[in-house]
Amino acid sequence: MAITDWPAQERPRERLLEYGAQALSDAELLAIFLRTGMNGKSAVDLARELLQAFGNLTALSAASAEAFCAVPGLGPAKYAQLQAVMEMARRALKEQAKQRDALTSPQAVRDYLRLQLGTREYEVFMAVFLDTQNRVIAMEELFRGTLKETSVYPREVVKRALAHNAGAVIFAHNHPSGVAEPSRADEAITRALKQALALVDVRVLDHFIVAAGGGVSLAERGLI
Length: 224
Prior knowledge:
This protein has about 220 residues and is α+β, with helices and mostly antiparallel strands. It has helices at about 10-20, 25-35, 45-55, 55-60, 65-70, 75-100, 105-115, 155-165, 185-200; strands spanning about 125-130, 135-145, 170-175, 205-210, 215. A 5-stranded mixed beta sheet has the order 2-1-3-4-5, with helices on both faces. A hairpin with a 5-residue loop joins strand 1 and strand 2. Helix 2 (about 25-35) packs across helix 3 (about 45-55). The chain is elongated and about 65 Å long. The termini are far apart.
């Protein structure tokens, strides 16, 4: 049965308009994005199959163009739309993070970092540079590659902090394995960066380890 034949109170779009997007399930939200289903399948049916095939919305949004377009009923146009939606979400969160105090309102920074890094297939090391009032000045990707293979050079980080006239910095990197638990190497790199930045009076406020399933704050673990 097509969604248009459903009772109005059960249709995803109508439910969103009535109760808000937060009231919808993942499948219903995805169905609104898909707009149409296939022969014998409603958009909700197709959405449920997609979530089952990829595992969750995070994995679906991180899927390659080849994997995404291999699913019957999808194609390059839908893939482009999905990537546009994800990029708009990243930019919106980045703007929110820039408008708030990173210490008193840390959730916007965390949400941005999770969306930016959580689905990367390779390791990325980022820095969020802050002014003396803990407001975001800039967010930069500094290094790529696993931390065992690609060194994080404290000297380069210090140069970027001075270039931004930063008073503090928050670091973040992802674990493509999906496990956000910090390693000994993560702790060692954080200590080295903290020592180097202390020489130029820049504070290290936190280091987030990000994975698709969540994130860990080294500051909250007492490791900063």
